[in-house]
Design brief:
The protein is an alpha/beta fold and 294 residues long. It is 40% helix and 16% strand. The protein contains twelve helices and nine strands. The protein has helices at residues 8-18, 34-43, 61-69, 83-89, 108-115, 133-142, 156-163, 173-181, 221-231, 239-246, 253-262, 276-293, and strands spanning 30-31, 51-55, 72-76, 96-99, 122-127, 149-155, 182-190, 195-196, 203-210. The radius of gyration is 22 Å and the shape is elongated.
Length: 294
């Protein structure tokens, strides 16, 4: 029986053996609690036929737990110094492949196609580096990968923003962007005490279940996301002010106000009170108007 990598004692032994020092610039915080790792893997509902994609395996603590359940694990590690460590710690798990590459630069469709069998159940299960969480998540969602679910550990505050409902302080353009592609929920909170080194903030496990199709129909996705971002540019300003500024080269403020009223959206409302459906009707209305005006 292999000793779990994720115990404080074993983690310390591995780090000392290789003289490994943490790089702050890579957001390295390793988990030292096997129970939490088990719960992360459970949240992904893996079976013996599943494939797992991991980002930032570190010394292999979470990778090991995924490998115990799933059929295959593909892990992307940017830090060259961790490759020989992973070779040793994951030696008992031949079903794991570690790629020394920045996941943001990787061709994930190609990697998935080559490593997993066609139609295989694939989940992303990862403890994401904090400094680059949002770009990684948006890449996973926007590239429309054949992935059923994404279960990731990230800063609690970011998890709350992604899963937020309209009307809450955390709700913003990130909530809408993520929820356009997936159903989002925070599964549980993770205290900072179970990491080495300890981060300054608590973490949370976020589960994103891919939608087969978006919850709203938009005529132009790029324009929709731009309008949503513009609506939140200055959170304390009204929708009318933010959207007038966004559309100032094409439409005057009175026209924007009339458009909002025609859609039964009070111009004095703030962006955080609008549902994704209301944003979709706004984007479709203005997109049509701008394209008719040209």
């Amino acid at each position: 029986m292999h000793k779990d990598i994720a115990t404080p004692k074993r983690t310390k032994e591995i780090l000392e053996k290789y003289g490994f020092s943490f790089k702050k610039s890579l957001g390295q915080n390793f988990l030292i609690d096997p129970n939490i790792l088990n719960n992360i893997v459970k949240a992904a509902d893996l079976t013996g036929e599943s494939g797992v994609i991991e980002i930032g395996p570190g010394i292999g603590a979470l990778t090991e737990q995924s490998a115990k359940t799933a059929e295959r694990v593909l892990a992307f590690e940017i830090d060259q110094r961790l490759i020989p460590i992973l070779k040793e710690t994951l030696a008992p798990y031949p079903q794991v492949k570690v790629v020394n590459e920045d996941v943001l630069k990787a061709d994930l469709h190609k990697e998935i196609g080559q490593f997993f069998s066609e139609g295989q159940d694939v989940a992303v299960v990862a403890n994401l580096p904090y400094y680059v969480t949002t770009p990684i998540l948006m890449k996973l969602l926007e590239e429309k990968l054949p992935v059923r679910v994404i279960v990731v550990m990230l800063q609690k505050e970011v998890a709350e923003r992604i899963a937020a409902e309209p009307g809450s302080k955390s709700y913003g353009s990130l909530s809408i962007a993520a929820q356009y592609y997936a159903e989002a929920e925070t599964v549980f909170t993770v205290p900072k005490t179970v990491f080495v080194p300890q981060p300054n903030v608590d973490s949370a496990i976020l589960r994103l279940t891919r939608r087969t199709k978006p919850p709203v129909d938009v005529s132009d996705e790029t324009f929709f996301f731009k309008l949503v971002q513009a609506a939140f540019v200055q959170r304390r300003k009204t929708l009318l002010n933010n959207l007038s500024k966004f559309l100032k080269d094409e439409l005057d403020k009175h026209t924007v106000q009339a458009a909002l009223e025609s859609l039964d959206i009070e111009p004095k409302r703030r962006a955080e009170s609008l549902s994704i459906k209301e944003f979709a009707s706004l984007a479709n209305h203005f997109n049509k108007r701008l394209n008719t005006n040209i």
